[in-house]
Description:
By secondary structure, the protein is an all-alpha fold. The chain has two domains: 1-93; 102-464, no CATH class. 77% of the residues lie in helices and 3% in strands. It contains 14 helices and three strands. The protein has a three-stranded antiparallel sheet with strand order 1-2-3. It is found in: Membrane.
Amino acid sequence: MRLKEKLISLDRRWNEFLKIWGVIAIMIAIELHEWVITFLNTWALIKPLILLFYYEIILEYFLFFKKIIIFIFKKIRFWVLTVLNIIFKWVKKVDFNINKRSKYAQTLTYFTGLWVLLGLMVLASASYYTSRKKHNIGLYYIIRQLIWGFGGILCSFCIILSPIENILKTSDIYFLTGLVLIFITTIPKIGYSINGARRWIKIGTFLIQPAELMKPLWVIQLGKTFGQWEKLSIVNRFFWITLFLLTILGILLQPNLSTATLFGMTLWFVALVSGINWRFLLTTVIAGGVAGIISISCKEYQKRRLLFFLNPWKDPKGEGYQLIQSLYAIASGQMFGTGLGWSRQKLFYLPIHETDFIFAIFAEEVGFVGCLFFILFLLTYTYFALKVARKTNNLQKKSIAVGCMLILVMQSLLNMGVASGVLPTTGFPLPFFSYGGNALIACLINASILIRIAIEETPHGPYLKAAKRRLLKKLIRLNKLKKSKRILHN
């Protein structure tokens, strides 16, 4: 009975609880309904104001962005007009009469064109199989080389049309820009690394190598500085020598010992041609030797290269493999070669045969006779370049001409020395032969600077005859005037 009474009492309490909370829930629902109705009524009043405020904000932002866009367009217009103004001023100063070429300028132009065509043929032969296997296009490397070559030809055309004096006026800015880019490549997140060397800046699918593009700027700045060395103050001398040393240091930090060596040798020879004191030349030799020793000591792979250069057979499948395969390629060429396109070492036996070791493939395909003709070609090019330098009265132009010749010819000889085992294995590209757009542009610019100096300093041939005829006509007119004055006076 007690249990039944307890259950009845619980049931009553539960019913009372439900009644109370049911009433509360109904009151809350009524209140919420009233709040919703009030909110909707209020929203109907506020909505136009909110929308108006919203549209005002959008309008403000639109006007703000409109001002920014107008400002940007004004700046773009200003810079475009400035650039066009500079171009028009440059065009006024440009010597467009390219027919005024000397015998040496024409010869150097023909030699450069022949060198480029020969290089494209050799590169097509050396890279076809590799490019077919890696990229499914046999002419992949040639197409990219032609794209870079088009840019190089445009640069060459501009240089050949520009007087050297105009180039020297702006050379300081370009040189400092190149120096900054060289140090930018050493920054880990910006510089692009290949095989442990951080020498490139990647822009899209193209790799920019500042050290290569710096070569013509290096020659121009060396010639400009050492050509007026006696006129420079001690402060200016110290400033430029410091920048030259920083350039070589930046290249060593990449690391790129081969290019640093080439820069150092060019500096020494240009200084020698400019008549710099022998104490300075001796100091540069000692400093270069010390820098080279320190660089080799700090880099383990450079030590190994030097050791296995002396005897590559100690490690024929490791450090000595590349040199051994290069020697195999040169030896396979024998007297007359296997024929263009018939090299066997390019079938993935010789690494990087389309760049640093392309001479080995060239030697295999054309043989000893072909290599001999190429060396004679380089010697003839050197002869005409030195003729231009000798006929130049301006010391700055003389130094620049020698520097351009050294960059092209000395780099070729160094590449041949590396491929044949005469020099330690380093990354010297063969000018106009090796695959690489930066090197091709730099070589074309160097060659065009030399041609421009020849145009300015060695008039000869039809242009000289025409100049003589004009001078003779002026003299005849002067004689006629003198005779007429005498008759009138008498």
